[in-house]
Amino acid sequence: MAVLLLALLPIPPKLSKSSKADQHQRQINADILRDVFELIFAPLQDPAHDGVPIDCADGKVRRCFPILAAWIADHMENVALHGIKSNVCPRCEVPAVELGTNMKVYPVRDYAIYHHYDYENWIGETDHADITPESLGIRLGQNVFYGLNRVSPSDLHKPDMLHTVYLGLFKHMMDWIQGFLKKHGRLEAFDEVWKALPPYPGFLVPKKAYREVTQWQGKEMRNLGRCVLGVLAVALRQPGSAQLIPFKRALGCVRALVDFNMMAQYRSHTAETITYMEDYLDTFHKMKDIFLEFRVTKRIRAKIDEQRRELRHDRPKTRERIAPSKRRRMRDAEREEETERRMDLIFCESHFNFIKMHLLSHFCDHIRQFGNIAMYSTEFGELAHKTQIKAGWRQSNKNDTSRQIVQSYSGQHGIRMRLLNLQSLRCCGADLSPDVVLQLYTTSTTTAPDIRRRMLKGRWDNVCNMANFRPVLGISIQIICRGLIRYSRHNLPPERRLPEDPEILESLPVELLKQLEIPVLVFQETEIYDIHRARCMGAQL
Ligand SMILES: [Zn+2]
Questions:
Q1: CA 404, CA 410: separation in Å to the nearest integer?
Q2: 281 vs 258: CA distance, rounded Å
Q3: How many Å lie between the centroid of ligand 1 and the Cα of residue 243?
Q4: 40 in any annotated domain
Q5: 93 C-alpha to ligand 1 centroid (Å)
Q6: 257, 316, 338, 534: which sits with the fewest CB atoms below 10 Å from its CB?
Q7: What is the 97 CA–ligand 1 centroid distance (Å)?
Q8: Ligand 1 centroid from CA 335, angstroms
Q9: Residue 488, CA atoms < 13 Å, CB-side half-sphere
Q10: How high is the pLDDT of residue 473?
Q11: How many angstroms separate the alpha carbon of residue 32 from the centre of ligand 1?
Q12: Ligand 1 centroid distance, CA of 94 (Å)
């Protein structure tokens, strides 16, 4: 995916909700944001309305209408750009109390009508007195995408695997699982299996138990999705008779979410794969109730405390002497009553109505309409931060940095495009001046690859060449040299062949020889390979 830095948006300071001065400042911020976007989108307006002739790949020139097609952002950024409330879907009019269901029958948001309501409200001649911004979950007049030619703002919203699944539902799910394991006394077993996971190419082995890690990144949560079901299944083995059904439901729920996540990563879909995704999501919603008691928010916790205080206050205080056994029975009964009332309150008040739960229901429709989801992930934007913003910041003199960051990257990008054009002209036999040709030979149009800074794990401190490596393998040096020379003669091109002098072979660095690179086809690809490295682990190859 090509990512080009166009502008840096202003970020206003955080404001409190109550103060009137802050409300006024919030409106000013929204107006400034809208003005900035108007400036950025201005060059798109005329071409989108009238069309422009564009050279197509088949050599023909066609009249095209380039429009803004997608906006990749996390939920809170979408909230600011679409002018909606934080627990509202930017795509459909789902009520807040139904965010945790999977009903899919809500009308698509029509921001043009909202703008019409806003206008009627402003001139004071409204025919829709019953429709208020609160009922629609919007802040009127704050949608920056309104007024773009041929663009429906509700279609700009894209599903985001990073924030919705990895940093959203997976994190919630792990909290529920931790609560569930604690309730059934399986937390230690889970931690033991978690820390004993064996290494595998492309899999990051966790060094600490899940609950010991304070912050999780998207990449780590994606890694977690690959192993959590297996670890949970091992931790929940051999259930008691009362645990059989809850364990089965918990595993079913986690499995459905993990399967949904796996299918959502496909780069191409058929009607069958989309049906699978819908089925997994349905199963997840049907089974998620097993974790309901672990969805205890601060508000519910406060209610539980209050209920407990009331119960203790209302109990009659007897002053007469009671036998210890009777007192114990009374305490047990009181404790049981407290637990029962607490669970009733939790089941009554807890819910799954949060926005990330609802956003999953748009994944399948989005695939049908616009194709796979992986290409819309915010991971691309986050990665581009490093080369486009952080590098520009470092190179700047920290004075009016926004301008310098934007200019620095666009300058480099422009030169690279120019060089690529000249290169392609030269390949077609165009008559270029000798200076340009010389420049093309000396300048590279591709970015230098990142140098791997990670040290190989399991390296022995006293092993640096083949002679030191021999005792590790337990094979004589003659056998190693013979094997290496045979491999080199039969498999390596002449320029990369190994020297055949045993003394030189013995002094070769061990890193050169102890890895075997196995190309494995990337999932759903036919020509792209991942290199899996098989490494020498101690005395066993
Ligand atoms: Zn929605």
A1: 10
A2: 10
A3: 36
A4: yes
A5: 6
A6: 316
A7: 13
A8: 43
A9: 17
A10: 65
A11: 28
A12: 6
Structure tokens at 351: 């819910």
Pair 515, 413 in one domain? no
Whole-angstrom CA distances from 93 to 105, 138, 156, 474 are 9, 10, 15, 69
Q: How far is the CA of 441 from the centre of ligand 1 (A)?
A: 53
Residues 185 and 282 reside in one and the same domain: yes
Residue 449 covered by a domain:
no
Number of domains in the chain: 5
**pLDDT, tens digit (0-9, with 9 covering 90-100), for 442-458:** 766 565 544 443 333 44
Question: What are the φ and ψ backbone dihedral angles of 517, each rounded to 5 degrees?
Answer: -100, 120
Sign of dihedral through CA atoms 367, 371, 375, 381?
Answer: negative
Say whether both 69 and 92 belong to one domain.
Answer: yes
User: In whole angstroms, how far apart are CA 407 and each of 196, 444, 538?
Assistant: 49, 21, 52
CA angle 389, 392, 397 (to 5 degrees): 135
Cα 131 to ligand 1 centre (Å): 19
Residue 108 C-alpha to ligand 1 middle, in angstroms? 8
Taking each helix axis from N to C end, the angle separating 170-183 and 218-235, rounded to the nearest 10 degrees, works out to 30
pLDDT digits 0-9 by tens, 387-421:
888 888 888 898 888 889 888 888 888 888 888 88
Q: Per the structure block, which two tokens stand in for 445?
A: 């149009």
* Same-domain status, 139 and 187: no
Q: How far is the CA of 91 from the centre of ligand 1 (A)?
A: 5
How does pLDDT run across 131-183, given as a tens digit for each residue?
677 777 787 666 888 888 899 899 999 999 999 999 999 999 999 999 999 99
Domain containing residue 304: 298-316+323-349
